[in-house]
Amino acid sequence: MGGFKVDRCVCQKISFDEIKDYARVHQITDIKQLQAKEICSNKCHMCAPYVELVLETGEVSFEPGAYIGRKQSS
Ligand code: FES
User: Fold this and answer.
1) Beta carbon of 38 within 6 Å of any ligand 1 atom
2) Quick one: which of 36, 4, 5 has its CA closest to 23?
3) Domain ranges in the chain?
4) CA gap 66, 39 in Å, rounded
5) Cα(6)–Cα(23) distance, rounded to whole angstroms?
6) What is the pTM of this model?
7) pLDDT for position 16
8) How far does residue 48's CA lie from ligand 1's centre (Å)?
9) Are 24 and 16 in contact (CB under 8 A)?
């Protein structure tokens, strides 16, 4: 498999690791709260499905397209 992993919001220059920490500290469970605070996912939105996975699973590095077929499983 290729080496490219999705592990950050490019627009806001913040890694998913940092987003996960921020969400934990601020008890954020919904991406809309991160967008409202302009932490991530509020510009091109390319990272949004991955950030939702960060919040759901705690993972911080994904294969491109990893969210396909994994969303809304609950
Ligand atoms: S990469 Fe996150 S908003 Fe563009």
Assistant:
1) no
2) 36
3) 8-57
4) 22
5) 18
6) 0.90
7) 98
8) 7
9) no
- Please give the single-letter amino acid code of residue 40: C
Residue 14 DSSP code: E
At the topology level of CATH, where does 8-57 sit?
Arc Repressor Mutant, subunit A (1.10.10)
β-strand partners of 6: 62
Helix axes 16-25, 48-57, angle to 10 degrees: 50
51 lines ligand 1 (CB under 6 A): no
Q: pLDDT truncated to tens, each residue of the chain (74 aa)?
A: 568 999 999 999 999 999 999 999 999 999 999 999 999 999 999 999 999 999 999 999 999 999 998 855 44
Six token digits for residue 25: 């500290």
- Residues 16 and 30: their CA atoms lie apart, in Å, by 14
